[in-house]
Design goal:
The protein is α+β, with helices and mostly antiparallel strands. It has three domains: about 250 residues, SGNH hydrolase (Rossmann fold, 3-Layer(aba) Sandwich); about 70 residues; about 170 residues, Sandwich (Jelly Rolls), CATH 2.60.120.260. The chain has nine helices and 24 strands. Strand 7 and strand 8 form a beta hairpin. Helix 3 packs across helix 9. The longest helix is centred in the middle third of the chain and has 18 residues. The radius of gyration is 27 Å and the shape is globular.
Length: about 525
């Protein structure tokens, strides 16, 4: 790549970072600028956040960590990289040791406890976020809570009990986690609860919650186009649920070669997925670093900024991506930190909101906790409720939440079959049409049967069964009635004797229905 082209790309990087993106980055940068706080930065992505080019460029997350270390020399900067084989962060790399430490030799540790004591160290409330090291203290630990001048809790349990141990209270820590894996797509971090908890080990330590999360996904969802929004949104929504104060910046990924790449020849779909990430960032108020358009603005990007496989950037391409990302950090001081309040993504309709429709389901309080509709095995029992999701929902997934009084051994055959149905319902005309009327016609749209086996041993075990996927959340009844507000009627039916697959002889109790925004 010629020097002029690279220079133009760098000069343009700062111009491509909008105020919303800077505001997300400022959540972290504002803390670090105080000089009396640390922070946590998490990268979640695929190979483009993992790749290294020996002797030329380090991976982008590590390079960002090094740049932050240079900007804040007093900080201790620790870098961790996810290992897919062990499903852990196996090592801590000290990018920068930092300054400002004090040591004592009268420390007291308690085995398998995060409490640390010292009569002489003189802990202060502002020590929260500082590194702490010493005998029986795990590597990379930080002070997570101030209790008194002689006692604090730390971010990990002590490995053993001890008295008269050495303790060093060190600099404030910037923890950088590269939670990325080559070949992963956006669903990888949330595939299992165990993986998410390990990938985001700070979930139980509020003082260590991420301040900023940068997401780099899309390439590895080959074949997907607009439906990729649901995959990406699920990751964003999960992160917002756990870390509502964190800034989130999406990376609209660099494009692959227009034809003949070594992977899926997925150029056109890739463009749509990156466009979906841009649109999602706009609708959800998230930050965006737009590598896609920066690459496309260079007509020779495929030869100048990609390696021979036609997908992965070369050293010059990674430099362009780094410059774009670093511009979000570097220019964030101009903006007030803003963490977007997550838009409502779940809606629970309790059993009490349903009415009996067919058969003889019975409503009662079960297990001394909540009301539920009891469905015996009789044929054709159903309940119905109004279901009006928030207006920003496009599609949704629907789960029926149910329980049984009895427990069943693992491997038992106690299946229950549910069937949902929907129809349109007018929920009220707009203010401009209060004197108008409209005829609501139509019949039930019957969904597919969904079977779930009760296999939990405990009594009153609760189950959640996905019964509808990507259901249209809201739409006008017809093109001519778009002024009216329309919702859904949702019917939930236990098939009982009406299905050969429903062989549970016991009454099952529906606690309600959970709606989850899909897009």
């Amino acid at each position: 790549m010629d020097v002029v082209t690279l220079g133009m790309a760098k000069a343009d990087a700062g111009k491509k970072i909008d105020d919303a993106t800077r505001a997300h980055a400022a959540i972290l940068m504002d803390k670090l600028a105080t000089g009396v706080e640390g922070g946590t930065l998490v990268f979640v992505g695929d190979s483009t956040f993992v790749d290294t080019i020996t002797g030329t460029v380090v991976q982008t997350p590590l390079r960002i960590a090094q740049s932050l270390a240079a900007k804040y020399p007093a900080l201790r900067v620790l870098f961790r990289e996810w290992d897919d084989t062990s499903q852990t962060y196996p090592a801590i790399t000290t990018v920068q040791a930092g300054v400002n430490s004090r040591s004592v030799s009268d420390g007291i540790t308690i085995g398998a406890s995060p409490t640390i004591e010292s009569a002489t160290v003189a802990f202060k409330p502002t020590d929260v976020g500082r590194a702490i090291a010493g005998t029986n203290i795990p590597a990379g630990a930080r002070i997570s809570a101030y209790i008194s001048a002689t006692k604090v809790t730390i971010s990990a349990n002590a490995t053993a009990a001890g008295a008269g141990t050495s303790i060093t209270v060190g600099p404030y820590i910037l923890d950088v986690y590269n939670a990325s894996r080559s070949g992963a797509n956006a669903s990888y971090p949330t595939t299992t609860v165990a993986r998410f908890a390990t990938m985001f080990p700070m979930t139980g330590i509020p003082s260590s919650f991420p301040d900023l999360i940068i997401i780099d996904h899309g390439h590895n969802s080959a074949g997907m186009t607009t439906e990729y929004r649901k995959v990406h949104l699920t990751l964003v929504r999960t992160l917002q649920d756990f870390f509502p104060r964190a800034g989130i910046i999406n990376l609209a990924q660099s494009p692959r070669r227009a034809s003949g790449d070594s992977y899926n020849n997925d150029y056109a779909n890739d463009l749509v997925r990156a466009r979906v990430v841009k649109a999602l960032s706009a609708s959800e108020g998230l930050g965006l670093v737009n590598a896609l358009d920066t690459f496309l603005a260079n007509p020779d990007y495929a030869t100048q900024w990609l390696v021979s496989d036609g997908l992965h950037p070369n050293a010059a391409g990674y430099s362009v991506i780094f410059d774009l990302l670093w511009s979000a950090f570097r220019t964030s001081a101009k903006n007030t930190p803003v963490a977007v309040v997550p838009r409502e993504s779940k809606m629970f309709i309790p059993a009490k909101a349903f009415d009996a429709l067919t058969g003889i389901p019975a409503y009662s309080v079960v297990n001394g906790q909540a009301g539920a509709w009891g469905f015996a095995t009789d044929l054709d029992q159903s309940v119905v409720a109004s279901c009006t999701p928030p207006s920003h929902w496009q599609t949704m997934d629907v789960y029926v939440v149910w329980t049984t009084a009895l427990g069943y051994a693992s491997g038992s055959n106690r299946t229950v079959t549910w069937r949902p149905s929907t129809r349109r319902q007018m929920i009220g005309p707009s203010d401009l049409q209060l004197e108008n009327s409209v005829s609501v016609t139509g019949s039930w749209i019957v969904g597919a049967e969904s079977t779930q086996n009760a296999t939990l041993l405990g009594t009153w075990s609760t189950y959640a069964k996905l019964i509808m996927t990507d259901q249209l959340a809201r739409k006008p009844y017809s093109a001519t009635d778009y002024q009216f507000g329309w919702g859904n009627l949702l019917k939930i039916e236990r098939l009982g004797l009406g299905s050969a697959l429903d062989n549970n002889p016991d009454t099952v109790y529906m606690l309600g229905v959970l709606l989850v925004r899909a897009s």
